[in-house]
Amino acid sequence: MMVERVPILKIGDVLLVSIQIDLQDQSVLALQEDLAEKISATGAHGVVIDISAVEIVDSFIGRMFATIASISKLFDADTVVVGMRPAVAITLVELGLTLGGVRTALDLERGMKILGVLGRQRRGER
Predict the structure, then answer these.
(1) CA-CA distance, 11 to 122, in Å (whole number)?
(2) Does residue 76 sit within a domain?
(3) To 10 degrees, what angle do helices 59-74 and 25-42 make?
(4) STAS domain location, by residue (predicted)?
(5) Residue 66 is part of a domain; what is its CATH number?
(6) Lowest-confidence range among 23-32, 87-96, 112-121?
(7) Residue of 11, 36, 65, 92 with fewest CB within 10 Å of its CB?
(8) What would the mean pLDDT of 74-97 be, rounded to a whole number?
(9) Mean pLDDT of the 69-83 span
(10) pLDDT tens, 25-38?
């Protein structure tokens, strides 16, 4: 079976992941691996995961978003999930998933602003 892959685009020192497919467990696992490899290869300091096209999540996919953020953090990259639909937010809360460590923003522009502020703080700390 062919696993659909989610494209990962590099914009400056940020990786943009725009999920436009129906997420299956295998595609989420592939994304986790692909993203870890891309962060390592590029040295990106931020990851934006756009889930505006995602209509349904289950507990596995919800946990994987938190896992992806944890993996990104190990590579010194901050993660922002953008574009969450109200139904997805409600489902995550009903499943008891808080997405610990994952910042969220209403849209891509706000997500990029969050990473911009974090980027300036990071440069100031070094």
Answers:
(1) 18
(2) yes
(3) 10
(4) 4-115
(5) 3.30.750.24
(6) 112-121
(7) 11
(8) 93
(9) 94
(10) 888 899 999 999 99
Query: Do residues 17 and 6 touch, judged by C-beta distance below 8 A?
Result: yes
Asked whether residue 74 is assigned to any structural domain, the reply reads yes
Q: Which domain holds residue 102?
A: 8-121
Q: Would residue 43 count as lying in a domain?
A: yes
Contacts of 34 (CB under 8 A, 6+ apart): 5, 6, 8
Is 126 within a domain?
no
Q: Report how far residue 31's alpha carbon sits from residue 65's, in angstroms, rounded to the nearest whole number.
A: 10
Q: What is the pLDDT of residue 45?
A: 94
Q: Answer whether 78's CB lies under 8 Å from 45's CB.
A: yes
Q: Into how many domains does the chain fold? A: 1
User: Which sign does the torsion angle of CA 30, 32, 37, 41 carry?
Assistant: positive
Q: Is 76 helix (H, G, I), strand (E, B) or coil?
A: coil
Q: Which amino acid is at 71?
A: I
